[in-house]
Amino acid sequence: MSESDTGLRTRLVDVGVALVAAEGAQALTLREIARRAGVSHGAPRRYFPTHLELLSAIARRGFDALADRAGTVLGDHTAQPRAQLTALADGYLRFALDNPGMYELMFRHDLLESGHLGLRETSLPLFGLLTDLVGRVRPDADASLVAGALWANLHGIAQLWAWGSLRLATGAQDFAPLLRSALDAHLGPEGAR
């Protein structure tokens, strides 16, 4: 692939990232991405043979950003595992709320080809990190199952908070009490471990 080809491929993904941020995952059509990139509607097919591959390349940027956020909130990994889990979960929720369109796209595996473009290589290490920390807090449990349940709970908090449902149902002004409750439910009370 020539440098100009690499540039156009990158520009198509950049346009998709901006579009998903501004208008959500439903706006990510090949035609609209091509229009905003200033190319013919058939041009993206030269670099992304399927629409799913282009969406996957856009989602990869989201997973990279989420991994960067995880690295930032975890710092040097010297905090206690429970504190690291709390920071990781808080960072995950904040990422979801700060980037709703990208967050939706990232977890819509029905729209993505997760085996292509390194999506699994980006997303699975994040789940591995969560599983490792859960295992350190709950050595008595199947860490991958508890991590999966915790992740599902966090995903639900993110989605229901974004929709306003949790504020209405709980009267909470921020998601922090919900996060503490989710961590306690999956890990046990904070002082107990």
Write structural notes for this entry:
Helices cover 72% and strands 0% of the residues. It has helices at residues 3-23, 30-37, 44-47, 51-74, 81-98, 100-106, 119-137, 143-162, 165-170, 176-187. It is elongated, with a radius of gyration of 19 Å. The chain starts with a helix and ends in a 6-residue tail after the last helix. Helix 4 (51-74) packs across helix 6 and helix 8 packs antiparallel against helix 10 (176-187). With 193 residues, the protein is mainly α.
Brief summary:
The chain is mostly helical and 193 residues long.
Q: Helix-strand pattern, N to C? A: HHHHHHHHHH
Task: Count the DSSP helices.
Answer: 10
Main structural class: mainly alpha
Low-confidence stretches: none
User: What is the β-strand count?
Assistant: 0
Radius of gyration over all CA atoms, rounded: 19 Å
Percent helix, as a range, is: over 70%
Q: In whole angstroms, how far apart are the ends?
A: 53 Å
Largest sheet: none
Q: Provide the β-strand percentage band.
A: under 5%
- Would you tell me the overall average pLDDT? 90
Silhouette: elongated
